[in-house]
Specification:
alpha/beta; two-stranded parallel ribbon; five-stranded parallel β-sheet; TIM Barrel
Length: 248
């Protein structure tokens, strides 16, 4: 009988110690979680996940401005550029236009409108010439001539250049006091007539501070560009001219 009582007592002591151990481990675990992540971490993580899902769905709660730049090469086109300017004006969007000298000379009224409506105008050479090893002087002269054409229309100095095909000589930066502007997103809009497809490529890749390359010389590109504006504005993006991306 005494042995049975002693066995029961030992069993009770052991179980008590085990229960105490489990309780203390639980408390230590909770303390470590709060020390590392702060109290109420699980609820905060749920709230953050909800905000991300809302942002992905286009319901943007943040007031922080996300800048992105829309740029257009090769124009101005006598009708498509006008359509684009109409659409940008309706949406309160400013863009950057890299114009060729020959097209600017043909359509000075469109260049003037770009300026009056707050768009930035840059140089895209006179005839869309690509810089090569054997034509540096000709390329330089085309930049100078295009600057002259634009300045005669706007009264303002041209500071930015989009070199056709992205080929550039850094010495021009000091020789001509011009700054080259390349791009981060190129949907190859010039080789597609499917506006939805073009816009989809841009929206899928778009991130803050991107510079989007498009062309205002094709109707499908203009349609796609306005789709891009609508979709990215809904996601909280603000469209700015390139100098705000490059120097802010």
């Amino acid at each position: 009988m005494k042995r049975l009582a002693a066995a029961i007592l030992i069993f009770d002591v052991v179980m008590g110690l085990l229960i105490l151990c489990v309780y203390e481990n639980k408390q230590v675990g909770n303390w470590v979680n709060e020390e590392q992540n702060g109290p109420g971490t699980q609820g905060a993580q749920t709230a953050v996940s909800k905000d991300i899902r809302q942002a992905d769905g286009g319901n943007v709660d943040s007031t922080e401005e996300k800048k992105i730049a829309l740029t257009f090469d090769d124009g101005p086109h006598p009708s498509y550029t006008e359509q684009l300017l109409d659409g940008l004006k309706e949406r309160g969007v400013h863009a950057t236009f890299f114009v060729t000298g020959e097209h600017a000379k043909l359509h000075p009224d469109i260049i003037k409108r770009m300026q009056e409506e707050g768009h930035l105008i840059g140089n895209h050479t006179y005839s869309h010439i690509q810089l090569r090893k054997n034509n540096r002087d000709q390329f330089r002269e085309e930049l100078i001539l295009t600057n002259k054409v634009i300045t005669e229309i706007t009264g303002e100095e041209v500071q930015y250049v989009r070199p056709p095909y992205g080929t550039w000589d850094k010495k021009f930066e000091t020789e001509l006091n011009m700054f080259p502007v390349l791009w981060t997103i190129d949907p190859l809009d010039w080789c597609s007539s499917n506006a939805d497809c073009i816009a989809g490529k841009v929206v899928e890749k778009a991130q803050e501070n991107d510079i989007i390359l498009m062309h205002d010389y094709y109707e499908s590109s203009v349609e796609a560009a306005l789709e891009v504006v609508d979709e990215l504005q809904a996601k909280g993006y603000t469209f700015v001219t390139v100098e705000e991306i490059l120097f802010d």
